[in-house]
Amino acid sequence: MTATFPALVLRKDESGSIRAGFEDLTSNDLPEGDVLVRVTHSSVNYKDGLAITGKGKIARSLPMIAGIDLAGVVEESTSDAWKAGDPVLATGWGLGEERFGGYSRFARLDGSLLTAIPRGWSAATAMALGTAGFTAMLAVFALEERGIRPDDGPVVVTGASGGVGSVAVALLAHAGYTVAASTGRPENHDYLRSLGANSFLAREDLDRDAKPLESDKWAGAVDTVGGRTLATLAAQIKRGGAVSVCGNAGGFQLPTTVFPLILRGVALLGIDSNYCPPLRRRAAWNRLALDLPADRIASWTETVPFRNLPQVAERITNGQVRGRIVVEVE
Ligand SMILES: NC(=O)c1ccc[n+]([C@@H]2O[C@H](COP(=O)([O-])OP(=O)(O)OC[C@H]3O[C@@H](n4cnc5c(N)ncnc54)[C@H](OP(=O)(O)O)[C@@H]3O)[C@@H](O)[C@H]2O)c1
């Protein structure tokens, strides 16, 4: 491996604020682990934006290599599960939070944290899904396991133009659901229609004070926004329906009542992609590869160079990113 390689490292400055900066590292800077991965691609999720800009406290210890996703090839391995040349990805597992993450040419980690890149996909394609796409798949799994079928009625996706939202729209439409996309950016309607959305809600239709129960409209929902949006959604879900609760782009509080749950049997299904167990991970990646053709994935993807990470982090935390961002790691 090369003597030095670049990484985006989070450190505390003299004032105590967390700053992200590019640094040249060597393999001695990497932690223990039985697999060394040559990272070729990563991605930018909302959480990455919070970590890099310092708008959210994501890293649990410092210094920390940021980046919750990585994809590339195995460079060296003493793990029985992997050999040099294997195409691999990792998402979550505390990457960029409690263990060094993906914004680095090399990552050394335990082989149990790696997943094979689905056959026929490149590392770039895997990162066009990344944590966001994987989370969308877990959210759809949760609705399906709850027994919600396309015939039960329309489903809603909130924060629809974002990473989790875009992939959720595409997956639900592919599975035959009638999808309403909730977005604060009407200029993205054509884009969302191209992913499979059938109708649209304005952000403020849901981001308002809700009654405990409202007229029931939706069989299910994938929510990436939280706050009042999730409370209004819960009040509008049909009897026996459910919301896959994924995010808090609009707030972390939940100003709701028990009435949707006890009078309509509505379920709030929590989605945790970070520590999802390996078997379910494999199932999710296999289903993503089955359901999403490469041209569909390309349609929501922007590719940026490594050195643009600070600017892209600002954009995603300001709600200015559409779909997914793939990072070409130097
Ligand atoms: N549970 C998990 O395991 C998991 C995994 C991944 C992500 N997440 C969470 O899911 C959320 C979305 O992540 P992402 O990577 O998809 O982020 P993203 O690409 O930035 O998408 C978020 C979307 O939410 C909408 N939005 C932004 N600010 C908003 C506001 N103030 N009020 C209402 N809507 C707002 C925007 O969509 P429109 O412009 O279309 O309205 C934006 O595109 C984040 O909270 C993230 O932390 C959770």
Description:
The chain is α/β, with parallel strands linked by helices and 330 residues long. It has 2 domains: 5-117 and 300-328, Alpha-Beta Complex (Quinone Oxidoreductase, Chain A, domain 1), CATH 3.90.180.10; 131-270, NAD(P)-binding Rossmann-like Domain (Rossmann fold), CATH 3.40.50.720. It contains 10 helices and 16 strands. The strands form 3 sheets. Strands 3, 5, 6, 7, 8, 15 and 16 form a 7-stranded mixed sheet that branches. Helix 6 links the parallel strand 12 (218-223) and strand 13 (237-245). The chain binds NADP nicotinamide-adenine-dinucleotide phosphate. NADP nicotinamide-adenine-dinucleotide phosphate binds at residues 45-47, 131-132, 135, 159-165, 183-185, 203, 207, 224-225, 246-250, 271-274, 316, 319, 321.
Integer average pLDDT: 97
Small molecules held by this entry: NADP nicotinamide-adenine-dinucleotide phosphate
The CATH class assignment of the largest domain is Alpha Beta
Got a strand count? 16
Main sheet properties: 7 strands, mixed
What is the CA-based Rg, rounded?
A: 20 Å
What is the fold-level CATH name, i.e. the topology of the largest domain? Quinone Oxidoreductase, Chain A, domain 1
The parts where pLDDT drops under 50 for at least 5 residues are none
**Total domain modules:** 2
Distance between the amino and carboxyl termini: 13 Å
Task: Report the sheet-strand fraction.
Answer: 25-35%
**What is the assembly state of the chains in this entry?**
single chain
Query: How many H/I helices?
Result: 10
Overall spatial form: globular
Under CATH, the homologous superfamily of the largest domain reads: Medium-chain alcohol dehydrogenases, catalytic domain
Which class do the helix and strand fractions yield?
alpha/beta
Percent helix, as a range, is 25-40%
In CATH, the architecture of the largest domain is Alpha-Beta Complex
What is the helix/strand order? EEEHEEEEEHEHEHEHEHEHEHHEHE
